[in-house]
Amino acid sequence: MLIDWFTVGAQAVNFLVLVWLLKRFLYQPILHAIDERERRIAAELADADAKRTQAQHERETFQHKNEAFDQQRAALFTHAMDEAKAERQRLLEEARQAADDVRAKRQDALRQEADQLNQALRRRTVQEVFAIARKMLTDLAGASLEERLVAVFIERLRAMDGEAHAVFAEALKTTSDPVRVRSAFDLPAAQRTAIQDAIDTAFAPALPVRFETAPDLVSGIVLTANGQQIAWDIADYLRSLERGVGELLKEKGQPDAAAGSDPSGTAAPHP
Fold it and tell me: What is the distance of C-alpha 50 from the center of its chain?
C-alpha cells in the first residue's frame, strides 16, 4: 500500500490547527476559569480560616468573660452573704440590747413596786402601832399619848447635863431667832407652858419659843436652836419592829434598801 504524504501532511496541519484552536478558544478559557475558581476557593478557604480564627478568638474571649463573670458573681455573692451575716448579727445585737433594756426596765419597775409596797407596809405598820399605843395609854394611864410624850420630853430636858447640855446652851446663846419646838400634834396651852418653863429652867434666861406643828414627824417633839436639836419620839421604840418587817420583806424576795432607817424620815439625835 502506498502512503499519500500530501494527505498525511494536510492531516497533520489540520491537527495542529485544531490543537491551536482548541487551546486558543477552549482550553485557555477553561484553564482560566479553573484558575479563577481555585483562587476563589482559596480565598474562601482563607476567609473561612480567618473567620474560624476569629470565632475561636471570640469563643476564648467569651470564655474569659464568662469566667470573669462567674468570679465576679461569686465575689458579689460572698460579699452579699457577708453583709447579710453582718446585718443579721447587728439586728440580733439590737434585739438583744432591746430585750436587755426591756428586762432592765421591768426589773426597775418591779423593784420600784417592791419599794413602794415596802414603804406602804411600813407606814401602815407604824400607823397601826401608834394607834394601838395611843389607845393603850388612854385606856390604861388615863392620859393621851401626846401628853405622855410631852412629859417624857420635859423629863429629858431636866435630866440633860455634861457636853450635850453645854452644846445646846451655847446654841441658845448665839441664836438670834426664836427657839422652835416642832411636834406632830397641836400642843395645848398648858403643855406649851410646861415646855417653856422646862427650857427656861434647864438653860437659864427666858427665851422666845415658837411652837409649830410638823405633820412629817411620826409622833414626837423636836427642840431646835441654831442648827442644834433635842428630839424624842416613839420611833426609837419601833426601829426593832421595822427591822423585823424589813427582814420579812427580804424573805419574800422584795428589796429593802431602807431597812433600819427612821420611819419618820427625819434624823432624831438624842442628848
Answer: 73
Average confidence score pLDDT of the chain: 76
In angstroms, the CA 116 to CA 227 distance is: 32
Q: What is the pLDDT of residue 268?
A: 39
39, HSE (Cβ side, Cα atoms, 13 Å): 6
Question: Which range, of 5-19, 30-44, 71-85, 114-128, averages the lowest pLDDT?
Answer: 114-128
Residues 6+ apart with CB under 8 A from 40: none
Backbone dihedral angles phi then psi of residue 113, each to the nearest 5 degrees = -60, -40
Backbone φ and ψ of 126, nearest 5°:
-60, -45
H-type alpha helices, the chain? 5-22, 28-141, 145-159, 162-174, 189-203, 239-251
Helix (H) or strand (E) run with residue 223 in it: strand 220-225
* Cα–Cα distance, 218 to 236 (Å, whole number): 11
